[in-house]
Specification:
2 strands, mainly alpha, 6 helices, flat
Amino acid sequence: SSNTQSALSEIIRMAEEFGWAHLMFVSSGFHIPRVRMFFELTKSIIRAEFIASESVLVRGNPEFAIEFVRIQESEKYQRRLVSEARGIEAIKNGTYVPASAQDKKER
């Protein structure tokens, strides 16, 4: 899949096809709110958990925590948070348009 919304739709379709009752989504912490929003829009009865990949990595190696703090304080990460917030507002307003493949390459 080329974007979050279509990937989520495909995952839910497969989960329903296989009769799965529970899904666990692991993604970057900044991405989780958008994944959750798209999931909620599907009105699926499948139970879902949303886990920040950073927390998984820190559990495996606490030294990652220092690097994640450094990254989260960066200007680029802060711009990403602003972009994600705009995306969530667009989803709420029904105006969301996924970024083009070229846009994603340039990030």
